[in-house]
Amino acid sequence: MINPAVVENIVLLAALVAVVDGHVSDQEKNLIFEVGSYELRIPPEEVKKHLDNWIGILQNQGFANNREAAISLARIAFQPLGDNEKHLAFYICQDVMYRDGQITPGEDSLIRELERLIFGGGW
């Protein structure tokens, strides 16, 4: 089983990508449930609990349509992850971004920053 703090950060990153465009679609949520439970090896109900919690917090804190704030939070969430966990988080986030069939400027900026942090030595 993956460390609970890692699970929390990966679900946070996926929720952030879903929220940053201002709308969280059911398609995005379902993808996070399915991929998150499979890749993180935890029950879908646990992914749902974390995801619903993070979506609520992110929406209430104004992260929707605020790419600068989203990028700052993503940097914080990425920092404690190991290399394999960063790659997994990026894979999940990229799938979430493409899931609803449109890529907004906020999603694009966020995924580019995640890519830079993983592959470009962003720390």
Secondary-structure map:
Elements: H1 4-19, H2 26-40, H3 44-60, H4 67-78, H5 83-99, H6 105-119
Helix pairs in contact: 1-2, 1-3, 1-4, 1-5, 2-3, 2-5, 4-6, 5-6
Description:
This protein has 123 residues and is an all-alpha fold. The chain has one domain. Helix content is 75%, strand content 0%. It has helices at 4-19, 26-40, 44-60, 67-78, 83-99, 105-119. Helix 1 (4-19) packs antiparallel against helix 4, helix 1 runs parallel beside helix 5 (83-99) and helix 2 crosses helix 3. The protein is globular. The mean pLDDT is 89.
**Overall shape:** globular
Q: How many strand elements?
A: 0
Percentage of residues assigned to helices: over 70%
Q: Calculate Rg over CA atoms.
A: 13 Å
Major sheet description: none
Q: Decide which structural class fits the backbone.
A: mainly alpha
Domains, number: 1
Strand content: under 5%
Unreliable runs: none
Annotation field: number of helices: 6
What descriptors fit this protein?
123 residues; mainly alpha; globular
